[in-house]
Amino acid sequence: MVLAAGVLLVGVSYAVEPFRNFQLATVAAYLCATAGLTVLTGLNGQLSLGHGALMATGAYTVALCQNAFADRGMTGGWLLPISLTAAIVSTVAVGAVVGVAAARLRGPYLAGVTLAVAVVVPALAVTFDGVFNGEQGLSVPVEPPPLALGPYFPYERWQLWLTGAATLLVLLLLANLIRSRYGRTFRAVRDDEVAARLAGIHVARTQVLAFVVSAATAGLGGALLAVLAQSVSPGAFSLTLSLFLLMAVVIGGLGRLAGAVWGAVLLVALPDLTHSVTELLTLSPAVAQRLEGNLPLAIFGLTLIVVMIAAPGGIQGLLSGLGRRLRARRS
Where is pLDDT greater, at 170 or 122? Predict the structure, then answer.
């Protein structure tokens, strides 16, 4: 199935214009984060409001690595995988620390800790401006597409191939994890911690593992976003992003990887929708800018309320229910 999705992705990259390739690549980058958050919240039952900060950790790591390579005059397509690996490792370290603290907390206390992480990490980038260049952020030098693809190969298509390959690998690993013994222990801890403990499951260790896996995918997603934008700044990973990620996985369908896909699509489609709405209205530039900044959160909130009332299982749950009804009618 992953191979078929890869072939479809390559075909779509030739069929659409460069800007759509870039948008699809952005969806793929967000999908890494939403898929990991789906495993953490939907499969293991831990609420996280700090995944935007974990994405920032991966983004800044890949920026620092790429700049270090460029300063030393090192070039080659093999450098980016090293930077992406470093981004995953650094985010796993942060996720392990947060996960150990999160395993001791429940409910609003857990949300408070992850919320603090979402606020502190971008603030560190501003505080240590000598390393992270403050609000202006860092550039991310990236090699052009391989010469084997041709001298005029579109850069946006290469971006889609790169992010798509990484995201498909993440989805393959997460799908196998969900079906494995670890996935069953995740669900057991989510459903009843006392029963899981009586069954011999180490609850705290399981929760830390779920947080580490989710942090790794979020770090990769943030690193891919930095590679796509070729820059990283604290404003791109604010608290709003963490809220958007959580609402996206709930609207898409909590606990389902297919729901994470819908959530990633919403994260990219929503800014375009709000921009189109503000263009239709005759407003002053200041009001239009303020509306465009706050409208996405309002639309996401309203969508979340409607989905929770009409389809508690999210978009994927609604589609799965419709599919079952159609199959029942045919039979």
Answer: 170
